[in-house]
# Entry
Amino acid sequence: MSEPLAISLFSGTDDRLNAAAVLVAGAAALGRPVHLFLQYWALDAFRADRIHADHGLAPEAGAHGQNAVRRLKRLGQAPWHETLRQAKELGGVEIQACTLSMDLLDITESDLDPLVDGVEGVTAFWLTASDGQVVFI
Amino acid sequence: MTITITKTVDARGLSCPLPIVKTALAIRELASGNVIEVLATDPGSTKDFIAWSKATGHELMESTIDGKVFRYILRKK
# Structure
């Protein structure tokens, strides 16, 4: 159960970000090294001035989904960035921003929330990811 | 045989994956052989704790339910 997990996270809506956070935390709790690679709208969600904002839900959620998510939030479910913060406390979780997506969004490392450990390109990502499982969200 | 509980993790009201994450964090501070008690309300937690115990080697000594509250007793490896 020490197989590394690499997640390429592309999606920027709260439901998909939460799904990714749950996978990260679950793997980290099992002692698996986790590498999270932030691309596109996921990276945008990690901007320091945006991380606490409402990132909406994927289209398939619909009105029913909106209500379900709102209900769970009222029951006290932790937001995805809080789940990730706790997962990082366990150790073995590395969060990297995709350098191409940094260019796309026209941002620098200082624009990102401290949850993000650094910036890397796709080659570095594949080098890390080649040891274990790769998931795209 | 009475079990001495060194630490209790109150994960009631927390959804997956927090009960496991909080337990993993708390168990780090214990010495080997110490016992940790976890209270949870997440229905998925039962299978999660069985899996986590198997993967980490921390023995799941007890898994019970009292009304809506699950109680897990684990011994640190």
About this structure: The first helix of chain A runs from residue 14 to 29. The domain at 5-136 of chain A is CATH 3.40.1260.10 (Hypothetical Protein Ychn; Chain: A,).
